[in-house]
Amino acid sequence: MLNMPGICKYFLLTIGFVVLFSPKSVIAQEGLLDGKVFLGQSGENHKSSVDEDELRFANGNFYSVTYGEKGFEKGVYLAKAVEKKIYFEAETLSPKHGKISWRGIIQGDSISVNYQWRKKGWLSDTVKDFTFDGTLKK
After folding, report:
1. Do residues 130 and 117 lie in contact, with contact meaning Cβ atoms separated by under 8 Å?
2. CA neighbours within 13 Å on the CB side: how many for 11?
3. Is 126 helix (H, G, I), strand (E, B) or coil?
4. Which residue from 21, 24, 77, 125 has the least number of CB within 10 angstroms?
5. Which 3 state secondary structure label does DSSP give 15?
6. What's the chain's average pLDDT?
7. pLDDT in tens, 19-56
């Protein structure tokens, strides 16, 4: 994707998704990404450490291997092709660790994803923002 600060990239992705997935314009294409697997690196915004992850699309579901190991289940994804890009969003849930909202853009063999992990706490809620950048597994 474009070489810009994380907040700018997040803002542009959010605006794109509001337009593409607003109730009046949603015409998601079922199974559009089924069978695709992306390998890449994931990291929390404004932190230098990164982790390897594998994102999988199958049978209308989205799955992160790294977060699956932490108890997050598969989640249904919505996808829409616009020109030479595919926009998608998904939500994965864990009974113990909360919910992750995923939004990404695929162009060619590259994927760029912003995701937010929300966990309700006893005294306060935790919200963390992350990015994932990867390529199609051949």
Report:
1. yes
2. 5
3. strand
4. 24
5. helix
6. 86
7. 454 444 446 788 999 999 999 999 999 898 899 999 99
Q: Structure tokens of 88?
A: 């998608």
DSSP helix/strand/coil, 10: helix
Q: How far apart are CA 91 and CA 88, in angstroms?
A: 11
Position 117, amino acid: W
- The yes-or-no verdict on residue 89 having pLDDT over 70 is yes
Cβ atoms within 10 Å of 104's Cβ, excluding its own: 27
The pTM (predicted TM-score) of the whole model is 0.79
All domains of the chain, ordered by start, with CATH?
6-136 (2.40.128)
Residue type, 55: L
**129 vs 22, 32, 35, 84, CA distance in Å?**
22, 26, 27, 27
pLDDT of residue 5: 54
Tokens read off for 95? 């009974």
